[in-house]
Amino acid sequence: MLASSTVENYLKAIYAGAAALPDGQRLLPMGQLAAAVGVAPGTATTMVKTLAESGLVEYEPYAGVALTAAGQKLAALVLRRHRLIELFLVRVMGYSWDEVHDEAELLEHVVTDRLIERIDEMLGRPESDPHGDPIPNAQGLVKPQDAQTLLSCPLETTVIVTRVIDQDKEFLRFIEHNHLKPGETIEVEARNAAADSVRVRGKNDQRITIGTRAASKLLVHVAQVVLLCLLAVPAIAQTAPQRTETRRTNLSGYMDFHFNKEEFTDARLDFHRFVLLVTHTFSPSIRFVGELELEHAFVEGLEEAGELELEQAYVDFLLDRSLNVRAGMMLMPIGIINERHEPPVYYGVERPFIDTVIIPTTWFEVGAGVHGEVGRGWRYRGYVTAPLNAAEFSAEEGIREGRQKGAESNVGRPAVTGRLEYVGFRGLTLGGSAWSGHSGFEFRPRFDVPVSVAEADARYSRRGYEFRGQFAKVWIDNAGLLNDTLALRTGVNPNIGSALRGFSLEGSRRFLAGRLGEIGGFLRYENFDTQYRMPAGYVPLQQFDRDAWVVGANFWPDPDVAVKVDYSVVRNQSSVVRAPNSFNVGLGWWF
Amino acid sequence: MRNSIRLLALAIVMAVVLAEGVALLFGVSAKAALPAEALAQAGQETRVIEIAAERFTFTPSEIRVKAGTRLEIRLESDDTAHGFHIVGTDVDIELPKRGRGAATVTFQPQAGRYTFECSRVCGAGHEFMRGVIIAE
After folding, report:
1. Does A340 contact B78 at a Cβ distance shorter than 8 Å?
2. Which pTM value belongs to this model?
């Protein structure tokens, strides 16, 4: 009998159906066959009887159907044609693997054996098609497979995906997008029966959680891979089963590259920040976070150039949602920018003035403290840290140079700092921060320079709009005595104020820019004065009473990459010293 | 020093008033900050919960459900890629970056408290990014 396409499709369906039968069951129920071919059971029975008369199947009424040896071979040869055509279309014709099945369904019935033989030879007599399905040889024989699915393979053991047994286009695209195609090396990290899910660690340590249904359609090969691992990288094979998901080390970071053109000076190119974050999870409740920053690209001996700073290096002991303990080098929980300063998250090439001369970001110090969330969106931080060093204060930059930065920091009288924050409404953050410490420890005879910082901020972002407001004030008690003492030491009176004050308001709007990414514009007003109040007998210099309008735009080709441009118009109250305006362009990114 | 304490106290009072005012303005009470709780219905088999992720906050960060409810948690990022890991379970997925869709995961908690956290380092304050599912 000359096999028609209908006959071939029936034989293929019986072949595939029989392969999926449980062990010990030989006959494929007629209902299953009818469903696979897409006809009524009666129609399928009529056809099967015809096939039985031709010696291609065995048919047992009310029990089912099985292929004879002749039928088996014929079905295998149809599959051979189908799978070779699929591989040819992918490798030679440039089709994607999710669009070849339909073409092969048509072509498998019309191509000649000669053409199939030439394709087989041209492709190097492959053993599997693009989906990993085995290609029978010219005699209709298939090499036995001992693959397992993602539901049955060993956990935390390297395996190779060998086959995807569902050829639905959407499913194949999902598999390809998540790097789960045949040939990919992966590892099943965990299975969750309650969530019907399987977590897979794949390419570049990326993790994806998929449903058990999808997992059952991915076949993997274990033994061969383990062998390869043992041969190639013994350490991996030996350590993999012992690995726990909690012991992880991660590297990330952010960078800032700037072009600055200030009035009255030449333009500068500055690789402002190169920051690497290293985190390590010792256990689910003990974590390490480290942040190492190279500022201005270059550090050399005693030269005035860049800075290499350890901005964070702490261990978190996560005890409870409401109470956790932290110790090490920590960011002071003051204001918006100090703890949230990745370049793509704020507008403007440089950080706001208030976050530079009033709040000395990045403000980091050694110490220990607690943090947690108390419910309804309220959370807090409270630390005991090393204080500022008043001997380094100045009129222009306020308390900025007083940061001890954990370099053998004096903690004779530790400072305390804290922040209370509301984050219970999407896009909204409201915060209040404070810092208080005694900063005169360096002077002999010793005298006290109590310093206090108070700050309040609000930020709301939704649907591309964002509004920010911030107010900060610094009090330096005994500033008169501090100035007199420093004047005796250096010969120049630093004219340090007894109070510093600043505030800023910013509005911005972000738009989609088609396929290019997103673009946003902003306008910010800042008012800041590092001599807001002076000690008795001192007169403030008007050049330090400043305000600024900053206007500019950000372009995000990716949410983690920002190209920034802005123009700052800075004014002061002095009729003698003029504050320079500046034009700035920046490129910042996070990874 | 006295001034700073006064200002901080004022800032805290203002923050509390503003926070509760915003909640009132947008028609959400304290419970509304927890939409999952507001939606809870006894006997409902599957609940859809939407969580927004942004450096360094999940909103809502506290979700109350009936024990045994099957949760379909839909997560969307307002900035970079984040992770969503329910501590002590196998639930751990990555959220796509802003504008690139949402991630969905199902979870059926038994009675208890389940801490969830960002499992993909997202910035300096990554460790603050936590929340809790309370199944009662």
Report:
1. no
2. 0.64
Give the residue range(s) of CATH 1.10.10.10 domains in chain A: 5-122
pLDDT digits (tens, 9 = 90+) for A235-248: 222 222 333 345 58
- Write the pLDDT tens digit of every residue in A296-329: 888 876 555 678 899 999 999 999 889 999 999 9
B128 and B80 in a single domain? The answer is yes
Determine the Cα–Cα distance for residues A454 and A418; give it in Å rounded to an integer.
10
Tell me which residue range forms the domain holding B4.
1-30
Cβ A475 vs Cβ B7: under 8 Å? no
List chain B residues with pLDDT less than 50: 23-24, 26-44
Output the domain CATH number for residue B123.
2.60.40.420
Q: Does B33 touch chain A (CB under 8 A)?
A: yes
Domain A347-590 coded CATH 2.40.160.10: yes
Contact A436 B1 (CB under 8 A): yes
Could you give the CA distance from residue A294 to residue A306 in angstroms, rounded to a whole number? Answer: 7
Task: Find, among A15, A13, A78, A1, the residue nearest to A44 by Cα.
Answer: A13
ipTM of the complex: 0.75
Determine the 3-state secondary structure of B33 from DSSP.
coil
pLDDT of res. A114: 87
8 A C-beta contact, residue A361 and residue A498: no
Confidence band for A179, pLDDT divided at 50, 70 and 90: confident
> Are residues B1 and A475, on separate chains, in Cβ contact within 8 Å?
yes
Which one of B4, B52, B113 has the shortest CB-CB distance to A454?
Answer: B4
Same domain, B85 and B131: yes
Are A277 and B124 inside 8 Å of each other by CB?
Answer: yes
